[in-house]
Amino acid sequence: MMQQRTDYRNMTKSIHQLYKLQDNGEPLVCLAPMAGFTNAAMRCIAGEHGAALTFTEMTSDMGLLHEREKTWQLLERFDDEPPVVGHLYGSNPQTLAEAARKVEENGKFAGIDLNTGCPVKKITQNGAGSALIKSPQLIYKILSAMRKEISIPLSIKTRLGEHPGKTAIFDILKAAEDAGADLIILHARFTSQGHGGDPDLDLLAELKSRASIPVIGNGGIRSPWDAWRMFKETGVDAIMVARSAIGNPWIFEDIRAGLAASEPPEEYNPTRGRPKRDLNKVRQALIKHLNYEQSLIEHNRSIYECPDRVQSVASTLATTFRCHLFRYLHGLKGSSYLRSHLYLLNSMDSIIAAVDNCLEREEAYRRRVVNDE
Ligand SMILES: Cc1cc2nc3c(=O)[nH]c(=O)nc-3n(C[C@H](O)[C@H](O)[C@H](O)COP(=O)(O)O)c2cc1C
Predict the structure, then answer these.
(1) In terms of pTM, does the model score above 0.85?
(2) Closest C-alpha residue for ligand 1 atom 13
(3) Deepest in the core among 10, 41, 68, 208, taking most CB within 10 A?
(4) pLDDT band at 20 (very low <50, low <70, confident <90, very high)
């Protein structure tokens, strides 16, 4: 089947304008906010591989207002990153508005986003994250207060509603539009689904058809095919990838190439999982990411009195990088050995040695498979 070429330039124009993004006519693929992951190092790697817009980890309004170092550190960024949106959570219109103003004054951010999707109890028990979905009126109050304080683009990232019997997204859209938000991002699942199950593309399409502001679609994009399908079936202005970008920055260029091709991408096959990557490329990206992570730790230590100062840079690095390391090496021979020998990974050199060991085993395995064929 020939692919009907889509004019992404028209669909994404307003997002390009909002965030002052270069418009080369390609679809916009963004990196989603992920607590514990999307720091400056991950955002940089994602940007180098084609993420057009990225989001910080979620950041507490109260932490910013109380000048907590741990909180401000979440908003550190490198100068040469792609445009970054500061992603805030809270439940009080005044404190969120004040925090948003501080973030804008910081001058490093292309926009500010309100989290109304996080289902984690620690967040919802204080009325923040997905607890806000229960009250579109409060969302309206919060966004209105933030809108008054900031002039950079204001967005909201949300879900469909609490559970399938309680769709709230259209009330949330109205609240966002009435409050003067510039953009809505929909993780097309209900809070009750957590991160599982299929995203509801019909409701995402309906949101897009009703919205007077641009819509970014999110949820379940694991491959160029998923991305193609979301654009095609919903008409969203841009898409956003979360979990599939962890240890896999190539997903952004895969998607862009898949959408630019004349044929639709091959349908995603969950049993096959992620594509096998060239091992030199894996090594290069992983070590670059590791270096960014180290630079970020050193940068933060030059500014903040970090509580983890008692630890060496190397051991902080070894701890913070673990979650990425295993995603880069997922499915490769030797990665399970690495997982059971975590205590060995306590410095930059030991991480690189372990990575090399794993990649050598995988290379030998791939050679054996080719020889056997
Ligand atoms: C580890 C992790 C942390 C996340 N942190 C946030 C967050 O801070 N704010 C937010 O709005 N969503 C957060 N999310 C949700 C993602 O942004 C995204 O909406 C969700 O994972 C669905 O996208 P995916 O199917 O591409 O993973 C997080 C998801 C994961 C897996």
Answers:
(1) yes
(2) 34
(3) 41
(4) very high
